[in-house]
Amino acid sequence: MTVSRTAKRAIIAAIFLSIVFLLFTGVYFAFIKSPESCFDAKKNQDEQGVDCGGVCTMACKEIVTGEDFQIKELSYVPGGNNQYDVLAKLYNPNDQAGASSFRYEFELKDDTGNVIVSRSGQSYILPQETKDIIELNLETPARPAVLSIQITNIEWEKLAGFREKPSLNIYQKRYNQIVSGVGFGEAYGVVSNESPYDFRSLTVKVILRDAAGKLLALNTTEMRSVSSGEERDFRLIWPAPFEGIVEKVDMVVDADVYHSDNFMKQYFPGGRFQDTGAPEPF
């Protein structure tokens, strides 16, 4: 069978194009295309994430999320001199996910819903922890009617091997109205660091309530450089009078295990232990 001149030309053209394609492909893979690696900012090979997992030695960072905090209480009380003290009691319902940092903003509003004063800050919370967030001396000449709080920028972290909160206790708790001297009332207690760790900073929070549990007054103080086994007393003063009869005195001591580095070694691999430098910022 005789092959026509047109068919011969088609065959030659196809062979030529195949050779050109093979040459281009070889040059591309040999000289142009970068080889797949664990540093190419791409998820390729058998990587579980971008440049992590699979053939890459670097493990992929776990994305941790959690259920929203539950607001158990939201209260405010006059602090004297056109100032107000506010309290939010937050509960973290997650078993392992804690928040190494979150932002909060209190807003005191009038009876029409307008914000008359606000205060923001940052805090942290452990898994299954109930935390009292207290801000003092929000100044406003207007009388507030409503208190609200917004929680944002939650940085979740999984605490593997978490067992319990730091062993910090307060003994000899008492509240007295000042009969003579400066001030209206005073609270006293002894903080005992019963953990095997030194803490650079502890925060003591005092909440006064009446017999029905109504919030009457708030106060806080900070203790610096509390060693393991150390006991240290504190005294908090309320200079201005407040209404109600104090029947319940709640005192809690708070230690930042996320940023102080004093307690991180138990919960986080590679955490520094007994570092007495300045606390890391949020």
How is this structure best summarized?
The protein has two helices and twelve strands. The protein has 282 residues and is mainly β.
Produce the secondary structure layout.
Layout: H1 5-32, E1 70-80, E2 83-91, E3 97-109, E4 115-125, E5 130-139, E6 146-158, E7 168-177, E8 185-193, E9 199-209, E10 215-226, E11 231-238, E12 248-255, H2 264-267
Antiparallel strand pairs: 1-2, 2-5, 3-4, 3-6, 7-8, 8-11, 9-10, 9-12
Provide a descriptive summary of the structure in words:
It is a single chain. The chain is mainly beta and 282 residues long. The radius of gyration is 31 Å and the shape is elongated. The strands form 4 sheets. Strands 1-2-5 form a 3-stranded antiparallel β-sheet, with no helix packed on it. It has a 3-stranded antiparallel β-sheet with strand order 4-3-6, with no helix packed on it. The longest helix has 28 residues. 11% of the residues lie in helices and 44% in strands. Among the domains are: 89 residues, Immunoglobulin-like (Sandwich), CATH 2.60.40.3230; 100 residues, Immunoglobulin-like (Sandwich), CATH 2.60.40. The termini are far apart. The relative contact order is 0.12. The protein has 2 helices and 12 strands. The C terminus is likely disordered.
> First CA to last CA: what distance?
85 Å
- How do the strands of the widest beta sheet line up side by side? 1-2-5
The CATH topology of the domain at 168-267: Immunoglobulin-like
Into which percentage range does the β-strand content fall?
A: 35-45%
- Low-pLDDT stretches are 262-282
Q: How confident overall, as mean pLDDT?
A: 84
> What is the correct CATH architecture of the domain at 168-267?
Sandwich
**N-to-C SSE string, H for helix and E for strand:** HEEEEEEEEEEEEH
CATH class of the domain at 168-267: Mainly Beta
Largest beta sheet, briefly? Answer: 3 strands, antiparallel
Q: Roughly how many Å is the radius of gyration?
A: 31 Å
Number of helices: 2
Count of distinct strands: 12
Shape: elongated
Portion of residues within helices: 10-25%
What is the structural class?
mainly beta
